[in-house]
Each structure stands twice: as C-alpha cells, then as structure tokens.
Specification:
It contains 22 helices and no strands. By secondary structure, it is mostly helical.
Length: 490
Amino acid sequence: MAGLKSLAKETAIYGMSSIVGRFLNYLLVPLYTAKLSVESGGYGVITNIYSYVALLLVLLTYGMETSFFRFANKKDEDPARVYSSILISVGSTSLLFVLMVLAFLPQVSSFIGYSSHPEYVGVMAACVAIDAFQTIPFAYLRYKKRPLKFAALKLLFIVLNIALNLAYFVLLPALYKSYPGVVGKIYDPGVGVGYAFFINLFCTALITLFFRKELTGFKYVFDRRLMRRILGYSWPILVLGIAGILNQTADKILFPFIYTGSDATAQLGIYGAASKVAMIMAVITQAFRYAYEPFVFGKTADRDNVATQAQAMKFFIIFTLLAFLAVVAYIDVLKYIIAPGYWSGLRVVPIVMAAEIMMGVYFNLSFWYKLTDRTIWGAVFSGIGCAVLVAVNVAFVPRYGYMACAWAGFAGYGTAMLLSYFVGQKYYPVAYPLKRIAGYVALAAAIFAIYTFVGFGNIYADLLLRTALLCVFVAVVFKVEHFRLPGRRC
C-alpha cells in the first residue's frame, strides 16, 4: 500500500496543476466562443489547427518520453547519458522540422486549407517544435520527483496565456475604439483569431527560459549506440502514439474534408467547443499518467506487484465514473462555459466522456507491453482502434455530422481497450477485480439512465435529483471500499 500512497500523493500534485490549469484554460473557451461567432468559423479554425498540433507533437517526440523513463531506470544505463542523448535527438529533429515547414510554407499552408493565412501554420509549427523539445526536460522533472516545479511551469504557461488572450481579445479591442493611434501600435483588429496562435508561441518560448538548470550543468553527449537501442524500443511507441492521437484528433482533421455541408468550419467549431465540456476526463487521465508512468518504471517499484496495478485500475475507474456522473448531472450549469450558439453540440458530451474513460483504461492496460518490451503490441492495438475510428468517420460523418465523430472515438477506444486486455492477460496476467468494476459501471449506467429519462421540467428539481443520485454512487462506493482503504488489507 506504500506504493499506492506515493502514487496518490504525486497524482494529487500533478492532478491539482492539471485541474486548476484546465479550469483556468476553460476561460478561453467562453472567451473564444463569445468573440468568435459560430458563423465566422473562428473556433473551428482553432479546433482544426490544434488537432494538427497534437498529431505533430507525437511525431516530434517519437516515443522519447516513455523511452527516457525506461532507459534512465535500467541498472546498466547512465541516466545522464540517456537524458543528454535524447535531449540532443529531440532538439535536432524539432529544429529540422521548423526549418522544413518555413522553407515550404506556401505549399504546406495550401495543402491543409490555410493558403490565405500561412502565418497560422508557420507560428504553430514553431510552437509545436518548442513544445516537443520541452517534453524531455518536463520528463526529467518527473524522473527527479519534482512535481512542484513541473506544476508551477504548467500553471505559469496557462496563466500567462489567459492573461494575454484577455488583453488581445477583450481589453485592447475595447481601447482600440477610443485610442486607435496608440493601441494600434501593439494591436491590429485584422489579425483576429491569429492572436490565439501568436500568444501561444510567445508563452511556449518563454517557459523554455525556466529550464536553465535542466539544460545546463552537465556534459552534452550523444551516444549513437545507446540511441539505436532507444529508437528500437521507441518506434513502436511512436506508431502507438500516432494511432492514439489520431483517435483523439482524426475526426477534427478529417471533418472539413468529408463533411458534405457548406458550414463545415462552423459545425467543427460547435463540436470542438462542446467537447471541451467533457475534457475533465482528459484531466484525470493525464494527471494519473504523469504520476503512474515514473511509478511503474521506477527502480523502487515492484514490477511484479500486479495486485497494485489491479487496485490502481479499480480506483481509476471509480473516480472517472464519478467525474462522468458529476459532469452529466450539472451539464445545465456547465454549459455556460461555452456561448449559447454552441449549445447544440452538448449532446456529444456523455459520448466523448465515455470514450475518454476507455482511453484511460487502455493507458492503464498498456503497461504490460511496456514492461515486457513488447511495445509492438501497443502499435497494433492503437492502429486497429484508429482504423475503426477513421472508418466510422468516413462512413457516417457525411450523413450524421459531428455526432458520428463522437461515436467514432467511442468505437476506436473501445476496440483498442478490449484488444489490449485480452492479449495482455496472456503475456502479463493481472487479476483485475472485474466483478466489482462491472458493478460500479452498471450502477453508473443506471444513474445515467435516470438522468436521461427522468425529469421534472424544472432545473432546480432536476439538479436536486441528480445530486441525490450522485451521492448514492459515492455512498455505495464508500460502503463497498470502506474496509479496503489504505492501511487495511486490499
């Protein structure tokens, strides 16, 4: 149980930074949706470009984050040499990427549909390259068990990003009307949505300055033999990562190409804005991942302690189900995160959240092939899941629009999750408490059904009913798990 306590403590720190950060970042959603109307398609542009960014970030890190933990914790490896080699590798490829994009900027911009705004593409290319490079120092902070600095830098980026967005989308436009001569020196209303990308680049570049200690004070060495072994381990993780991120972004990338209506950008904006309401699941999964990865790969971790992994899975599912029920229960309040023009997309929230839960379960299951060095299986599972997602999108988006995108994610993650479980039980069996987990899932499903089909037509009465049902779920969990809390036998 000591391991679970340590895991819980670090998850709380990473989680607090993620939750607070995401909460602050949510301020951008009502800001963008209020200042960028559905008809303008501005939020659709943000949704589309950031989908490309997410995919490129996976390509430019090519599995080096997980590989760093794996090799830095091997007894026969020098952690400093591993860190230096990976840092040089990722830094070099990121720089090469930026130079290539800038050299062919008109062609790249035209290909993805932004020939009239190549600056969007150039700026975000630089941004994602810096982000990719920063991934390694951030991983180093996690390796050194320094969650406070990790969290502080993440929050600094978000707070600064929000402050500048408020300045350029609210304050300066208001001042420009009265003092165009003065304000016009730092603000141009014609830039519009482009400021979101320029601000992101500025904030990302600034954070790099705070990695002085992580980037200096040691000798940079690039060990080619070591990197060959690292790349041999990481390339399946890269394939896995590409397939995984496509499960999250392929719908937003493909949508403008396969949606048959003339309002593709507007519809994508509605889907992207509504999906933000469901992102509490991504916060929980990310927080758990930040703490769980070094915990599992750490030298002090008992890698044969499959009971701990089973317990971690159970509690992860409990908390994500609780988050699911809470968000759905208070959706009538949470919908004010986005502007009323985007509310039609809220019907995707339960589907997207359910898909995120399965993605989290899949991440938990993924450690069997990482610990046994069978990472090729991860590429296979994610690849099949991605193929399912793309197929559903291509087949149904032309008819059902963004609702098909939500169900495609559900189908893709579900497929990858099930495949990983059944194959994993053959190579690295873990006795997950399936009956208990199934009971919690069934209870959550029953409560969700009541949420959906029982209502009083009064928002206050409905909220009271949903709150009571939420408390029922918590009470049942507490009763069942009460004699299995940390400190007692599990």
